[in-house]
Amino acid sequence: MTTLVTGGAGYIGAHTVRELRARGREVVVLDTLERGNEESVVDAKLIVGDIVDERLVTKICNKYEITEVVHFAAYKAVGESMTHPMMYWRNNVAGTISLLNTLIGQGVLRFVFSSSAAVYGTPKTSPVTESEPLAPESVYAETKLAVEKILASLSTNGMRSVSLRYFNAAGASSDNRIGEDWLTSENLVPRVMRALLDKSFQLEVFGNDYPTPDGSCIRDYIHVEDLALAHVKALEYLERGGETFVCNVGTGLGTSVFQMLDIATQVAQCSVPHTIGARRDGDPVSVYADPTLVRSVLDWKATHDLRSIVESAWNWHRTHPNGYR
Ligand SMILES: NC(=O)c1ccc[n+]([C@@H]2O[C@H](COP(=O)([O-])OP(=O)(O)OC[C@H]3O[C@@H](n4cnc5c(N)ncnc54)[C@H](O)[C@@H]3O)[C@@H](O)[C@H]2O)c1
């Protein structure tokens, strides 16, 4: 019984591979490495290749006796998805269709998918439950929703899946071995770390006049190791015979940008240089998860607090200012 992890050389995939290996599972990673790092794949076989390569995926399924898949491989930059939409439809949707088709042909019928809270667009209220209307506001988010819909339609093929709608993944591994690359991430935590460590970089806070207690936007930050564990729980659920389902993966806590800067200041013992910029189009005021469903169905709950996220990120970035290079 071997788990195939697509995109396992990327940020969340690499942490998940380690969690799977720590639990004694056999793991094979398939990654093009175009946005991932060979060095981040610790203790698992890495095969460099594309999910659309049917012959390769078939060969992997047979050679390693793949029984289930965790599918991270995708592009994830919202802005890029708006300027290069076909790239996103091709890789995130057509690529996933090709992968699913090959897997079904090989009888691999358990699938965990990296979806995103971006499918909600600007939710009316937070905490956001799974019954919130789906209103993606970018091509990226549309591609995630499209794959969720494809997966929902595959029960006739025997495919069972869990789509995990991640909120904001952040932090690095507790042993400081793997982490996020600030050059390839637009997320707040790596940008805060870069502002602390790279004098040539200026952090811009997008808006300080939102209707929140301190005027900045509120998001739900989840430690990447907690997120990795959610995938193990999802695989266990499918192994128990669980049916296809979709859930949020977040902490249920909202943190503002300025709260994040305060914690980073405490951890680094140095204030975070930043400027205040204009609001960004389409940035919702406040988005954090209602994690009731993931708790009850997958028995998963976040264990790391915000300080642990920031400390792990700080340790990683100050010791790896050039990422894996
Ligand atoms: N980082 C977040 O906060 C976040 C939030 C919501 C959803 N997600 C989703 O989670 C998944 C993983 O995110 P991440 O932050 O680890 O991204 P990442 O870019 O670090 O990792 C993605 C990996 O997939 C690989 N890849 C891309 N296309 C491929 C293909 N066709 N075949 C094989 N490999 C391919 C890349 O080389 C990369 O290593 C993505 O699907 C992303 O959309 C991430």
CATH architecture of the largest domain: 3-Layer(aba) Sandwich
The CATH topology annotation of the largest domain reads as Rossmann fold
The arrangement of helices and strands along the chain is EHEEHEHHEHEEHEEEHEEHEHH
Q: Any idea what the radius of gyration is?
A: 19 Å
User: What would you give as the CATH superfamily of the largest domain?
Assistant: NAD(P)-binding Rossmann-like Domain
Q: How many helices in DSSP terms?
A: 10
Give average pLDDT, whole number.
96
- Can you summarize the main beta sheet? 7 strands, parallel
- Please give the share of residues in helix: 25-40%
Q: What best-fitting shape do the alpha-carbon axes yield?
A: globular
Poorly predicted regions: none
Structural class: alpha/beta
Task: Give the C-level CATH assignment of the largest domain.
Answer: Alpha Beta
What is the terminal-to-terminal distance?
34 Å
Describe the structure.
This protein is an alpha/beta fold and 325 residues long. It folds into 2 domains: 2-170 and 222-249, NAD(P)-binding Rossmann-like Domain (Rossmann fold, 3-Layer(aba) Sandwich), CATH 3.40.50; 188-220 and 252-290 and 302-319, UDP-galactose 4-epimerase, domain 1, CATH 3.90.25.10. Helix content is 38%, strand content 18%. α1 (11-22) links the parallel β1 and β2. α2 crosses α4 (85-105). It is globular. The structure holds nicotinamide-adenine-dinucleotide. Nicotinamide-adenine-dinucleotide (NAD) is lined by residues 6-7, 9-13, 30-36, 50-51, 72-74, 76, 91, 95, 114, 116, 166, 168-169, 187.
